[in-house]
Amino acid sequence: MFEQRMATSNMMTSKWTAIAVLVTCEVLALTLWFSATAVVPVLKEEYQLASWQASLFSSSVAIGFVMGTVTSALLGLADRIDPRRFFSIAAFVAAGCNGAILMLEPTSWLVIICRLATGICMAGLYPVGMKIAASWAEKDTGLLIGLLVGALTLGSASPHLFNALGGIDWQLTIQLSSICALIAGGLIHFVVLGPQHSLAASFNGSLVLQAWRHKPLRLANLGYFGHMWELYAMWAWIGVFFHASFAQLGWIETTASFYANLATFLVIAAGAAGCLFGGLFADKLGRTTLTMLAMAISGSCALVVGFLFGSNPWLLTFICIIWGITIVADSAQFSSCVVELSEPAYRGTMLTIQTSIGFLLTLVTIHLIPIWVEQVGWEYAFGLLAIGPFLGVVAMWRLRLHPESVKLANGKR
């Protein structure tokens, strides 16, 4: 009896040590995603970067991510390779591609190529990290995946903090994010895989279609797609929105830039808390409940936040922080749904397919926002994003009514 208690205690210690190291690796590695996006306002000022070029600083990473995840899904890489080795190689290559930007003219097409290559490598970081976390899941899938998405959120926000503290030295932001990724690539080897980890014996191409044919998976994915319609466009453009809004107040450029970067960091980083509490809530009260609530609030924020453009900066930042919390609080739960509705040996591929299509959708809204701003102004631009979460609510309600939803959150749906 004593030996059994000791074994259980050691397993729990190993679990939370592994999760802590994994979360640290994700925070460090995911600083690469928005490392160039964070410095867009400075580059637009110094190099007269066009709006379409600024869009490509974000969308090229998403394009690369889609390319990487499609390749990974078609070859079943996430389920056939030791995930730690996959993560490490991806982090090292991504750090090199990101660092190469420092040797190029910011307006050069080669910068976009570097961002594309960085995005390709992300296929070995984000979905692979979720697979590692899921290997430790036991009645706490939502919390574990929530911690991973929270790490992604904090990592995505970090470049804005680097940028705020570094002033107008945009090179420092690129340098720090590349160094962080290198550290992550080495640290990942200290992560222990959980007892539910398994490798697929062979590649099964029919899995790609299974994500759509199986109705519960299809509904979970549709909910995720609605969520993704909103998320990355908001993350990509909220910094530019803050810069433009604070400039309307008549602040000098350095002051407006500092507070805009700080506000952007706070808004995106607040999502990490949303992921943590969202995971706890979903495991106890249900995945569909959490996702529908979060999307309803975030979609409402998207509709109203533009009307605060150029007004009280404290109120604007407060509403945006609420948006930042709710816009990503549900993200992990769509992945948790896939974990709970899929065969264990192929979870990596199912997660990769989900994220691949989701990020493909982000390309649409990332490029639509600046066009929409020119047409209707910032007051109405983010309202376009509300379409996704409201349709996502419908998909998750239909999943809640499906008999297989009893597999979610230990029957709590």
UniProtKB/TrEMBL annotation:
Ranges for domain Major facilitator superfamily (MFS) profile: 216-413
Alphabetical list of InterPro entries matching this protein: MFS, MFS_dom, MFS_trans_sf
Spans traversing the lipid bilayer: 54-78, 85-103, 109-129, 141-162, 174-193, 231-252, 258-282, 351-372, 378-397
Keyword annotations: Membrane, Transmembrane, Transmembrane helix
Transmembrane found in the keyword field: yes
A Pfam family the protein falls into: MFS_1
Keyword Magnesium on entry: no
Official protein name in the record: MFS transporter
